[in-house]
Write a structure and sequence with these properties.
Elements: E1 3-9, E2 15-20, H1 23-31, H2 37-40, E3 46-53, H3 56-67, H4 71-79, H5 82-98
Antiparallel strand pairs: 1-2, 1-3
Helix pairs in contact: 4-5
């Protein structure tokens, strides 16, 4: 069984990240306002990214990782722009050292 990591863009421009073993059903739940309180108030939703993982654990770990990233870094991830992700990651580490 495959597990999908997905990223939605809400009507207010925010990004929502989740994972599921049934993307079609989960999207129906989101659209009906029954999947999550956060997305229920932010329709319409646009599916920006889907990535498949072999295990729920892998999908959940990537979800948790991405949730800690900035919007810019998430958008770079969606675009597959690893050079920008690297620059943004270095900028964060540099800022943390200066604090």
């Amino acid at each position: 069984m495959a597990f999908s990591l997905y990223i939605l863009e809400c009507v207010d421009g925010t990004l929502y990240i989740g994972h599921t073993d049934n993307l079609d059903e989960r999207m129906r739940q989101h659209e009906a306002g029954k999947a999550d309180a956060y997305t229920a108030r932010r329709h319409p939703l646009k599916l920006l990214h889907v990535e498949e993982f072999e295990t729920r654990y892998e999908a959940l770990m990537m979800e948790r990782k991405l949730k800690g990233w900035s919007r810019a870094k998430k958008l770079a991830y969606i675009a597959g722009d690893w050079s920008t992700i690297g620059v943004l990651a270095k900028g964060k580490r540099r800022h943390q050292r200066e604090s």
